Amino acid sequence: MTPGVVDQTTDAANSPFFRWMVDWLDEDLEGSRILDAGCWNAPLGVYLQSKRAQVDYVGTDLNNEALRSGKRFDQHMRLASADLAQSLPFASRTFDGVALIQTYEHLPRGTESKVIRMLAELVKPGGWFLLSTELNSILNPLDPAWLFGHRHYWPDEIIPVLEEAGLTIEAMHVNGGVWQYLDVNAMYVAKHVLRRGYRTPAKLRRLTENEYDGVPRWRASRVWFKSRRPLR
User: Fold this and answer.
1) CB atoms near residue 4 (< 10 Å)
2) Would you say the C-alpha torsion 131, 22, 98, 101 has a positive or negative sign?
3) Between 112-122 and 155-164, two packed helices, what is the crossing angle to 10 degrees?
């Protein structure tokens, strides 16, 4: 997607998505260096900044227009153009944590294992690696992109990729659902059809927030993995 008016008006600072994510990650982020791989327009960076977290945030994305959109939030935010399927301009073992949020499904088919190995190499021993992606479920048809080849995954397809990269999986979680898909679809209509900004209505927001925990796997839409690089 091309960044547009919606990307510039997203209320990332009050995002329940990132609030839940940081709580579930359950790591002391203060003073840490974090890589947000495939950051788009850096909403995670905006969220962390709004919470006054003392985090050395670095975001990378292949889409330069998205990165420019992120810079409009904060011109000093550290954002770099990089293709995850090729290489990254960072030395190994330089980040306390690496996040790959809703990006795995966008990697060129066949490069997933290579990318995860490369990102795992950037994590310091004892550091964390967070991955989220689309989950295979009965809700697949609610994702318009799925109808055109957008990949959804079974957890068992991702577990060996993480383990082969030398990561130890500590937790897995599924969430999302019908209301979150409806919210996303409403945003698509506002952005691409009506060409205007979109903000989730209050009632729908409450319904989507109920889908971050307690959702059975068969009707969830997203899967999360928290892994760690062993100390040795």
Assistant:
1) 15
2) positive
3) 50
| Residue 8 pLDDT level (bands cut at 50, 70, 90) | very low
For the chain, report the end-to-end CA distance as a whole number of angstroms.
40
Least confident of 18-27, 61-70, 101-110: 61-70
Q: Residue 127: CB partners within 8 Å, gap ≥ 6?
A: 95, 96, 97, 98, 228, 229
Per-residue model confidence (pLDDT) at position 84: 96
Question: How confident is the model over 132-188, as pLDDT tens digits?
Answer: 999 999 999 999 889 888 899 999 999 999 999 999 999 999 999 999 999 989 988
